[in-house]
Amino acid sequence: MAPPPHAATRPPTGGHRAADVFAEPDLMEQIARLPFGLAALTLFGIVMLRANATYWAGRAVAAGGRHTRLARQLDSPPMRRAEAIIARWGAPAVALCFLTVGIQTAVNATAGLGRMPLRRYLPAVVIGSVLWAVLYATVGLAALEAWLAATAGSPVGIAVVVLLAVAVVVGIVLAKRRRQRDQASA
Predict the structure, then answer these.
(1) Which end of the chain is more exposed for a tag (fewer CB within 10 A), N or C?
(2) Cα–Cα distance, 88 to 186 (Å, whole number)
(3) Contact 7, 26 (CB under 8 A)
(4) Each residue's pLDDT tens digit, 77-127
(5) Does 28 have pLDDT greater than 80?
(6) How does DSSP assign 16-36, residue by residue?
């Protein structure tokens, strides 16, 4: 069996270690080469680890803050109401945050800080992680491949990247106009 194409560039390490995989700059390229199911499963594992680490960091900050001068504020009636709202309505926010760009960390940390019960958080984070993994394994990796083709000088790849960029800009402009229109009518 022939070694993978990138094996020749890897310095000898005395065996493959898990840390080597995360140190490689082309991890997403490696995931993109996997069959869809394995790529989606890998991405699911990555996002579950990251989201849960963020949640537990939030829980740790909340617990640690209760042993400081912040304890009175963290145990105040407004904070208790906020925790109740997070406990009741946070699950949809957690699940849907994975369909956005840039707020997953904030939502998962807030769920932890607000001590969202695990019986609500875990199903929500599993649903959100599945959505993210499937979306990223299809559209996300296709965008990566288009970007790699564009950087290789492929006219088709450049066209796809330009079209994606135009679509993103149009989406942002339309969302901004809709918000302005809604604010003006309110």
Answers:
(1) N
(2) 28
(3) no
(4) 888 888 888 888 889 999 998 888 778 888 899 999 888 999 999 999 999
(5) no
(6) --HHHHHH-TTHHHHHHTS-H
